[in-house]
Amino acid sequence: MQEKIIILDFGSQTTQLIGRRVRELGEYCEILPYNKFPESLAGIKGVILSGSPYSVYDPAAFKTDLSRFRGKLPVLGICYGAQFIAYTSGGKVEPAVAREYGRANLETIDMADELFNGINPGSQIWMSHGDTITELPSDFKVIASTADVAVAAFRATGEKTWGVQFHPEVYHTLDGMLLLDNFLNICGCAKDWSAASFIDTTVAALKKQLGNDKVVLGLSGGVDSSVAAVLLHKAIGNNLTCIFVDHGLLRKNEFKSVMEDYKHLGLNVVGVDASEKFYKALAGVSDPERKRKIIGAGFIDVFDEAARQIKDVKWLAQGTIYPDVIESLSITGTTIKSHHNVGGLPEKMNLKLCEPLRLLFKDEVRKVGRELGMMTQLIKRQPFPGPGLAVRILGEITPEKVHILQEADDIFISALREWNLYDRVWQAGVILLPVRSVGVMGDERTYENAVALRAVTSTDAMTADWAQLPYEFLAKVSNDIINKVKGVNRVVYDISSKPPATIEWE
């Protein structure tokens, strides 16, 4: 059984960063809802409690039964997690006089405590909370403080339970990785999880899960579905049939180019042109969630139809990854956005679902792809939304709008490659806005479409900054789009970061 760290999610925006940091340190981990701790402790080396948007004394706060693992496994509470441990043990948590947010420094540290091994006083940390622990239980002790926070970190005496009121997972906590590594050492973790080990365990698990069953996989041309296909092919060989659907919302000439890219992989790939079906289903629909769900349901319909041509298919495989799952339904039950891989699925599916990558972040998927020997152009391909250009056309979808966007997008992406900027950007694309603006071309007044360029830098899509592309580049792209794409007379550049914005506009 593979050892792991369990991270209980209480709704923090940085829970996924905790998971990423633990993975980067070589230890496998799983993020679970705060109330879904496994029945068995087998294989679990330790538990991390995340932050939360709630106060521990709020009646609506997320709560869990700590007795299921506290005293049996090492536990680290972060921010809300630390306050929850202290509060449920008899301590006091109260609103801070002033919200404690931003950089701070640990002025005092218990150097003998193993959680702070190698961390010296003065170390910079990142605070983000409105409450603070004002009184610890009698059997707890303070192990770190800042100028303003008396209990920056504590330990429960006589057991391996710690809490920190800062965020070691964020970049601004300079020794955060060291602190998390110390915790993994306390847990006795082997820290031997890697892309190679993931491939070995996943291929073995797929062989056991699928046996001799036949599987159909929906290829999108992106990294996720491509890596999933190669993993499945490695596990079940010719029992895998890949279906690449052209829903009419791909980039310019993408269907043909992607089909050519797959030739070297030895996969059995069937191309299906279903563009008319999707255009008809999307006619008159403007709501982004409805568009996503229509496309998700349409994919399943196409797969079902294609599967009927293949005898005895029992499984539908998809390239779902962790951010897809996390963003599709938050712990609070609030949908950020549905994803075609995890949203809009019909209640009665003709096929069972197989998602070999659903616990990986994007950069981890790329590492697995490189380990599998896949060609660079597939591994480095920028993420592209499953619903395609449907979520980059604000408002109703029409073939005419798709054509305009394809042409503008092709100019933008081609220019990124020509200027050697493509690999410096996590994701880029053009958005067709539901507005028109006045312009002048020659001696004529125009009233045409506006488009927005979007380019971001990121490592996992959970957070992203807008890419600071050269002005000369943006000027050239804007000029080319306006001159070459009929129907566009204005280009703007999106300089929003995530959060508060999302990468895609819909």
Give a verbal description of the structure:
It is a single chain. The chain is of the alpha/beta class and 506 residues long. The chain contains 13 helices and 19 strands. The strands form 4 sheets. The chain has an 8-stranded mixed sheet. The protein has a 5-stranded parallel sheet with strand order 13-12-11-14-15, sandwiched between helices. Strands 16, 17, 18 and 19 form a 4-stranded mixed sheet that branches. The radius of gyration is 25 Å and the shape is globular.
Please, what is the average pLDDT? 89
Give the spatial strand order of the biggest sheet.
2-1-3-4-10-9-8-6
Cα shape: globular
Major sheet, described briefly? 8 strands, mixed
Helix content bin: 25-40%
Query: How many individual β-strands?
Result: 19
Instruction: Give start-end ranges of low-pLDDT stretches.
Output: 332-348
Structural class computed from helices and strand pairing = alpha/beta
Q: Give the helix tally.
A: 13
Distance between the amino and carboxyl termini? 40 Å
How much beta, percentage-wise? 15-25%
Could you give the topology of this structure?
Elements: E1 4-9, H1 15-24, E2 29-33, E3 44-49, E4 75-78, H2 80-88, E5 92-105, E6 108-109, E7 124-135, E8 140-145, E9 153-156, E10 161-164, H3 176-186, H4 195-210, E11 214-219, H5 223-236, E12 240-246, H6 254-261, E13 269-273, H7 275-282, H8 288-307, E14 313-317, H9 322-328, E15 352-354, H10 362-371, H11 376-379, H12 399-418, E16 427-441, E17 444-457, E18 465-466, H13 471-484, E19 488-493
Parallel strand pairs: 1-2, 1-3, 3-4, 4-10, 11-12, 11-14, 12-13, 14-15, 17-19
Antiparallel strand pairs: 5-7, 6-8, 8-9, 9-10, 16-17, 17-18
Helix pairs in contact: 4-5, 4-10, 5-10, 7-8, 12-13
